[in-house]
Amino acid sequence: MQTDTAPAPTAPVAGRRAPVWAAGPAVPASAAWREGDPVGRRQFVDIGDLTLECGVTLPVRVAYETWGELSPSGDNAVLVLHALTGDSHVTGPAGPGHPTAGWWDSLVGPGRPIDTDRWFVVAPNVLGGCQGTTGPASTGPDGRPWGGRFPFVTTRDQVAAEIAVADALGIDSWALVVGASMGGMRVLEWAVTAPERVRALAAIATTAQSSGDQIAWAHPQLEAIRSDPGWNGGDYYDLPEGAGPHIGLGIARQIAHTTYRSPRELDVRFGRDAQDVEEPLGGGGRYAVQSYLDHHAGKLARRFDANSYLVLTESMLSHDVGRGRGGVEEALGTVTGRALVVAVDTDRLYLPEQSERMAAGLPGCDGMHLIRSDFGHDGFLIEAEQVGTLVRDFLG
Ligand SMILES: CC(=O)SCCNC(=O)CCNC(=O)[C@H](O)C(C)(C)COP(=O)(O)OP(=O)(O)OC[C@H]1O[C@@H](n2cnc3c(N)ncnc32)[C@H](O)[C@@H]1OP(=O)(O)O
Ligand SMILES: N[C@@H](CCO)C(=O)O
């Protein structure tokens, strides 16, 4: 936040640079997990044909991971649902088959708040995802990847697939269904669709229906990918490294990532600082915060599939537990399980007031819990101790 020491702008450098993160290690056309790639800890269940809300029927395979042992009575099963760019790898190191380390490593494991010595934890990759569950990178009816022809999937379709997984695993009801952000949407949809199968739910940094603001933030992300020539109508899986829609995907991530952090954090942490010796004031260089966003763009483009990003983002926009059910309050009122609702105080994307609405509408909820964080929406990933304490106490 320096002011008077800043140099005057220099003459603009002719020609703008391409995103720096696209240089360096090659960006694959798609980073989706494909048949023949290392399986890692994944297991698979073929749930058969699923008819989606849009009317399309397709065969669905779900990739999932488990930890712990199912008790003889089957009463200790916990379902963990990931957010937009997560997957079934909730806990454990990165390695062959797993592009990232567990995204909730702090929450799930032996002795941790969701103690895998006690609970049988199941984590599926979402329908439409890119880590082993049927999605745009999967083979379509004509033997080619679905690509841009992958059908429109709603939160309800995703939960329908997860219900079929529970059936296949012989789990009648969950001791807890827990998730944050997009995962929290499915938590709520589970609890409304199948209340008798959700004995407790924990909905973190999420909403009962996507708001106009959330739809607005998503729109330019969708446009960024679809307007990238490398997207090619969603048909890019055979393109060489560097030729896919990674620029569009990276821009989408930059928009999204900005909304995942708080304005204050970005200002205090980066302010107006230049990135290293780069000269942002007309010299073609970057501010540190630009470099930070470039870094996150490059990381996502190297580990995620652009078509899945589109499908999942649009599924989030479809999310409204009240649709066709008489409204949000009516729908929430049908939930029978105990409910934990958690918001992050600085979350500018999933506002605490949206959590307050959920907490007020869920009969089994004793009020919203607010996490104190400087980091905004990503607080659900970063504030491990606060999230862990709330979930541990709730599980009892
Ligand atoms: C269920 C799910 O949500 S799964 C998805 C969760 N995972 C992700 O979203 C992956 C993307 N990462 C993130 O969103 C975040 O890193 C979190 C939430 C996981 C963790 O947040 P933080 O610990 O605060 O990390 P932060 O956002 O500061 O990023 C740190 C990275 O930025 C880099 N960085 C920091 N400043 C700069 C800068 N000026 N220029 C370039 N890079 C920078 C760091 O070197 C570090 O790189 P690395 O992650 O490759 O080691
Ligand atoms: N960092 C999270 C935020 C979305 O909730 C993700 O990428 O999934």
TrEMBL record:
It is an enzyme of class 2 (transferase). The active site is at 181 (nucleophile), 347, 377. Residues 76-382 form the AB hydrolase-1 domain. Its EC number is 2.3.1.31. This is Homoserine O-acetyltransferase. Pathway: Amino-acid biosynthesis; L-methionine biosynthesis via de novo pathway; O-acetyl-L-homoserine from L-homoserine: step 1/1. The lineage of its organism: Bacteria, Bacillati, Actinomycetota, Actinomycetes, Micrococcales. The keyword Transferase applies. GO terms for cellular component: cytoplasm. It comes from the Bacteria. Keywords: Acyltransferase, Amino-acid biosynthesis, Cytoplasm, Methionine biosynthesis, Transferase. GO terms for biological process: homoserine metabolic process; methionine biosynthetic process. Substrate binds at residues 253, 378. Transfers an acetyl group from acetyl-CoA to L-homoserine, forming acetyl-L-homoserine. The keyword Transferase applies. GO terms for molecular function: homoserine O-acetyltransferase activity. Homodimer. It catalyses: L-homoserine + acetyl-CoA = O-acetyl-L-homoserine + CoA. Belongs to the AB hydrolase superfamily. MetX family. It is found in: Cytoplasm. Its main location: cytoplasm.
